[in-house]
Amino acid sequence: MAATNPPLISVLIAARNEESNMKACLEGVLRQTFPSDRYEVWIGDDNSSDGTAAVVKQFQASCKNLHLLPVEKNLNGLLGKANVLAQLARVARGEILLITDADVQVPPAWIDCYARHFRRRVDMISGVVALNGQSVFAKLQNADWLTYMAECNEKSNKGQPVTAVGCNMAIRSSTYKAVGGYEKIPFSVTEDYELFRAVTSAGYAFGSLMDREALAFTNPVKTFGDLLKQRRRWLTGSFSANWRFVLGFNLNCLFLPFLLALAFLVNPLIPATLFLYAWVNHIVFLRKVYHKLELKKNAGLYLYKPYSMICNVIFMFVRMMPTPVEWKGRKYGQ
Description:
Residues 10-174 form the Glycosyltransferase 2-like domain. The chain is of the alpha/beta class.
């Protein structure tokens, strides 16, 4: 239920060559239960070469709270998505900046849910994102995303926040300005984490939102090669995180080699028992996550553990490759 005196909220969306996704994205953010006169939507068109801007303009004809900002230059040396969001934040009027991506679809109560949680003493909130798709590969990716986000949610609830999700997060405008915005944050291909780190390092309150009403959906990558590029980008930014993240990632990567070593050097029954325990334990964990978010349980939930063990070893080597990070048709150095 909407508040009687809701805050003004600005939805910020960076878009680059998102013609195929823009319609579904806008249908979601413009069909909200939140009062339309209490929120505005800003689309930053990042030098798109397709019809992204044309799709936005079609919606503008009937939506007075929808705005399009062509982004043709870099602000203060900023690059990529951080550059777009920095420019959108400068024109946004809202007390709260709610950030998502052009390839994301949000539910009708999305803004309402965030506004409700900002009534508490919190300065930045990160939500959860699930993946569309019916293929086994898509379902495995979805299980992977939900595992990571649920673990982050648990740590945040214990007072040990890990990161924010760039396609489903919100921050008070006053907090954003107080930390200097993206203009004062070191460039990273994971700009969401850098903003999160600036906010939490300055002592501002962070909250994690695991609520069906704020659950956003995006699309899975189509090929394993695209998955490797995606994970390389994430890991490049995440390795600037605290030592606990780096340690946890490395331990996950080494779990499968450790089991194989035990099988060859000691007794195969020992690693088999450890593997089955880890597998069953994670299935129980994920079933609770799917239930909380009201998601249909599927093969990805049950097959995720062996899939992730193999992928983590591959990701470890991909992380060490000296090649540039690719994102939205652009390449960035490490």
